[in-house]
Structure formats: structure tokens, C-alpha cells
Design goal:
five-stranded antiparallel sheet, globular, eight-stranded antiparallel sheet, 21 strands, alpha+beta
Length: 441
């Protein structure tokens, strides 16, 4: 039955993008204003129901799952204000990154850095620490200059470096534990060009030269194809332009046929007949050719990802990366595992966000994937053993088995975050099983 506060519905199952997390909330609400959201939170608290906001479901953990009230923020979308003098844009929390990037480009503006997909809402992406790769520029959350959130008592709290700085330090990557974000103010800059250089390279060379590639490029990343010694590297650096995007035929072959269509087919074959995977990997790792192109940032940083998968990603101290990668390769080679998805490697500078995976340290990220519907536990367990031995911190929105005891050691400011949570949400209105595991009670 609808209420005066927000359009809502009864129990309806929710499923994430990868299909590995499901939940059946008591009701789902879609507020069309911040006031409606505040009332929905107050009502849920009065009824003893927990509340979680969910974006587009691109997390692989149950961070947004609830048996209480599920908030869909998609009606809270769009740019609120562009302040060119301050170099900021304020955007409603349910705005999808794709829509934000396109709107900023029309205004001659851009974020400095971004991840490799843009299907998430701005609040979902930042709350879980979504990042791209960068020598000097950090995660999306590190570009936040202010935010609003509805707290457990239904109040609206505005925070920045000057206003409630303790909340600001934590809520930029809040994992949904401190409140429901309603708006975010990002730093932006005039639109610029990036030149991307994609090039196949051997695993031994990439790992031997990793620090050199990192130092010489603003944005360096690479993919290693398990069961092979082959990698594909990508270097993005600022350019004077003009735009020189891939030709339509080349773009279709690389981004649609090889990276999505053919990749979908070979993964389906590999799932049905795992013994074929090493041979497929050797062919697939040679399919992508070298290319160079120039375009505005979101057209270079991001690409379509239509092949569904499950993912684990850990942030390691950057100096630990090469050793960890070599251990990962040795583990795969001596195991009976059959891995059809490449391993992704990226970097980030240290930031000052309490529970950011790059908090206080230069970081390198290693992401392992398995095709949707393929058993992933053995591979992820073995990979996680390597990552944790090197002091790794798991991405908050990707599969991992760590708990509050581990995080209390992995994050020097962990206690600062949990104390703030105790103050803002003592009754755990925004709690769920995932937060109980990773933050404790």
C-alpha cells in the first residue's frame, strides 16, 4: 500500500548484477525527494526495520542486502549545481555515472579519474571505494569535496573538510554503514584529452618493468591471461588532442566482438568444457592487437562490460605487487584450476579516507574474476591466501571472506570508523549481515 512519503511496494526479491546475491526486503521504496527519504527512514526505525539503499547492483557482496526496507534512489538523480569558480559539481546520489560523465562533457567538464565501467550510481560507486588506475589521481571517492546523508534519526547531515570533518573523513567510503547518501559534490576540471596506448606484452617483461611503467604514465594498467605468459597493457596520458577515436570498424572488433561477443562465447565453452580453457586462453590473449587512440576521458577510461562475472579484488602495498603476482601465477600453474578471465592490475596513490583501500598507503590492485555460473571458491580462496599474506585490503564491494578482526589490523583508523558508526547509528538502522561481519557489532 502506498504511503504519503514515497512510492513503495511489498516484498519483491532483489538480485545483484552478477546474480550471486539475492534479498527479499519487507518493502521497497523509491523516494522522489530527500524529504520522502527522511520520512522512510524514520518510519522504518519506528517499525524496527533495517534500511539499506541499493544502486544498480554492481557490487558482488551483500553490502546493500536487507530483509527490511530497500531504498531505490534512482528518482534522486541529476546535477543540482555546477560551480565553475570552485571547480565542483553537486549531483544527486542516484545519478548513474554514465549520465554524469555525459552531462559534464556537455558542459566542458570532467572528473579527473574514473573506473573502467560507468553503470553504477555515484553513491554506490563511492561508498564501496570504486576506483580506476592512477599514479597521481585517486579513486572516485577521493574526488569528493562534500556530501549529504540521511542519518538513522532521519536528519540530513551535510559534511565536508570544514563541516563535520570527522564524518566527511569516513562517509566518502561509508559502505552504507553511516547513513544514506543523498548528494555528492565532486571536484571537476575542464574537459581534457587522453591518449590511450594498448599493447600486448609478456608477463615477465611487465612485472620486471612494472615500476618503470608506473612512473612514466599517468594511468597504467594491465591484464594477465592465466595459463599463458601473455598480458595486455594500457597506458593513458594527457594529450593536446585533437580527438582521434578508434574507427567504427576497429572499435566494434575490439570492444564488441572480441571483448564482449567472442569473449562471451569462449567463456560459455570454457564453463561447459573446462579442459579447453588453457588453449582458449592462449588464443584469446593474442587476439587483441596494439592500438593508439585519443578521446575525452570517459571514452578512454571506460568500456562496455556485458560478459557477467564474479570478482575479488585486493589492494596491496604497491611494493608487494610483483611478488604477489608471481605467486598467483605459480599457484595457477601448479593447480588444476581453469581460469578463463584475465587478472586485472591497477594502481592508486595514498588517500586520507578512513576505510579507503588506499588509505595512508600507495596501493596496487589485483582483481581476479570467474565467469558467471562457474565455481569460483577454490580460485578465490587460493588467491585470497596470497593477497592477505601481503597485507591486502579487499574491495568493499567485491567477494572476500575477511571480518572485523582482520580489518582492525589492516586499517589503522578502523576504530575511528566504528566509533563514528556507534555515534551516528547506535541501533544499527543501516546494519545488515555483511556489515556485522566486516565492522562487528
Amino acid at each position: 500500500m502506498a504511503t504519503a512519503t514515497a512510492a513503495n511496494s511489498g516484498p519483491t526479491a532483489w538480485r545483484n548484477w552478477a546474480g550471486n546475491v539475492t534479498a527479499t526486503p519487507a518493502r521497497t521504496v523509491t523516494p522522489t525527494s530527500v524529504g520522502e527519504l527522511q520520512e522512510a527512514v524514520r518510519r522504518a526505525a519506528q517499525e524496527g526495520l533495517r534500511v539499506k539503499a541499493v544502486g544498480t547492483g554492481h557490487s558482488f557482496t551483500a553490502a546493500a542486502a536487507t530483509d527490511g526496507v530497500l531504498v531505490r534512489p534512482q528518482a534522486l538523480a541529476g546535477i543540482r549545481e555546477i560551480d565553475r569558480a570552485a571547480g565542483t559539481v553537486t549531483v544527486a546520489a542516484g545519478t548513474v555515472l554514465k549520465d554524469l560523465n555525459e552531462a559534464l562533457a556537455r558542459e566542458g567538464l570532467s572528473l579527473t579519474n574514473m573506473g573502467d565501467i560507468m553503470e553504477q550510481t555515484v553513491s554506490g560507486a563511492t561508498s564501496t571505494g570504486t576506483h580506476g588506475t592512477g599514479r597521481d589521481s585517486a579513486s572516485i571517492a577521493a574526488q569528493i569535496r562534500g556530501l549529504e546523508l540521511v542519518t538513522a534519526d532521519g536528519e540530513l547531515l551535510t559534511c565536508s573538510e570544514k563541516e563535520h570533518p570527522d564524518v566527511f573523513a569516513a562517509a566518502r567510503v561509508g559502505i552504507g554503514a553511516l547513513g544514506i547518501v543523498t548528494a555528492i559534490t565532486f571536484a571537476v576540471e575542464p574537459l581534457f584529452f587522453l591518449t590511450a596506448r594498448e599493447e600486448p606484452m609478456g608477463f615477465d617483461r611487465v612485472t620486471a618493468e612494472f615500476e618503470q611503467h608506473f612512473a612514466e604514465n599517468e594511468h597504467f594498467e594491465f591484464y594477465w591471461f592465466p595459463h599463458t605468459g601473455n598480458c595486455n597493457t594500457k597506458r593513458n596520458n594527457r594529450s593536446q588532442g585533437p580527438a582521434a577515436p578508434p574507427g567504427p570498424v576497429s572499435a566494434w572488433i575490439e570492444d564488441e566482438l572480441l571483448s564482449n561477443g567472442l569473449f562471451q562465447a569462449v567463456n560459455s565453452l570454457g564453463r561447459a568444457v573446462p579442459a579447453t580453457i588453457p588453449s582458449i586462453a592462449r588464443v584469446a590473449s593474442r587476439a587483441l592487437s596494439a592500438r593508439t587512440y585519443t578521446d575525452i576521458p570517459y571514452k578512454v577510461f571506460t568500456s562496455p562490460r556485458r560478459v557477467r562475472f564474479v570478482e575479488m579484488e585486493y589492494a596491496l602495498p604497491r611494493e608487494q605487487l610483483v611478488e604477489a603476482l608471481r605467486e598467483l601465477r605459480a599457484m595457477v600453474d601448479r593447480s588444476r584450476l581453469r581460469i578463463s578471465f584475465p587478472v586485472e592490475v591497477r594502481t592508486a596513490p595514498a588517500d586520507d579516507i578512513t576505510l579507503s583501500t588506499a588509505s595512508g598507503r600507495e596501493s596496487a590492485y589485483v582483481a581476479v574474476h570467474m565467469y558467471k555460473g562457474t565455481p569460483y571458491q577454490a580460485y578465490f580462496t587460493a588467491a585470497e591466501r596470497i593477497f592477505t599474506a601481503h597485507g591486502g585490503r579487499p574491495h568493499w564491494g567485491k567477494v572476500h571472506t575477511r571480518d572485523a578482526e582482520y580489518f582492525a589490523q589492516a586499517y589503522p583508523r578502523f576504530g575511528e570508523f566504528t566509533a563514528l558508526r556507534d555515534r551516528l547509528d547506535p541501533d544499527r538502522v543501516f546494519g545488515n549481515d555483511y556489515l556485522r561481519r566486516v565492522l562487528g557489532d
